[in-house]
Amino acid sequence: MTVRRTGDWDRARSLLAAGPARLRGALGALLEQEARSLQGQIVEGLKNQAPGGKALPPLAATTLAARRMVGAGGSKALLRRGTLPEAIVVRLSGLEAFVGVSGGASAGGGKSAADLAKLHEFGAGPFVVRLSPKARRFLFAMLRQSGQERGGSEGGGRGVAVIRIPPRPFLRPAFEAYRKGIRGRIALQVARLLGWGG
């Protein structure tokens, strides 16, 4: 029986001779580079309103009217205060990386940025909210500004409003898009970082 070796054995030997420390350092540098790239793509997806290439649903006319009434401009979803883009972090630990919204990040007003991200990623509701007289006046003014003289039948005129927050995924689509081709990317980058790839 004849054994025939194929492939670049000299390069394979040089990789193995480089030792675990060099390999670990190369993998750590690669991991950080990949994590920072994913972080940038998530933030960019929020800014251009198409995380992972999937367009976010536009804001409702009532939401836009409410923004105008409280002096907050802009028509982009998830960007009213800029809390979410600022909350996207990279945390490295050995050869593991966390990319997402940190549980300790604040969204202001005593709210957690992670809770805010979860609310928008998956949606929430319906919530039944009892309306004070002031809230009722605001609601009817908002409906007029949005071109809707009356709301739907939700709440049934009982002094309550039913609120639903539609899902606007911004993390999952970015992760899914980023995952495509990652094995090949990592193999090429490891080879390059170790100095034996093109």
The quaternary structure here is single chain
Mean pLDDT: 84
Number of domains: 2
Number of strands: 6
Low-confidence segments, ≥5 residues, pLDDT <50? none
Q: How large is the share of residues in beta strands?
A: 15-25%
Q: How would you characterize this protein structure?
A:
With 198 residues, this protein is of the alpha+beta class. The strands form 3 sheets. Strands 1-2 form a two-stranded antiparallel sheet. Helix 2 crosses helix 8. It has 8 helices and 6 strands; from the N terminus they run H-H-H-H-E-E-E-E-H-E-H-E-H-H. It has helices spanning 9-17, 20-47, 61-69, 83-87, 113-122, 133-145, 172-179, 182-193; strands at residues 88-93, 96-101, 106-108, 111-112, 124-130, 160-165. The two termini are 35 Å apart. It folds into 2 domains: 19-123 and 167-193, no CATH class; 125-165, no CATH class. It is elongated, with a radius of gyration of 25 Å. The mean pLDDT is 84.
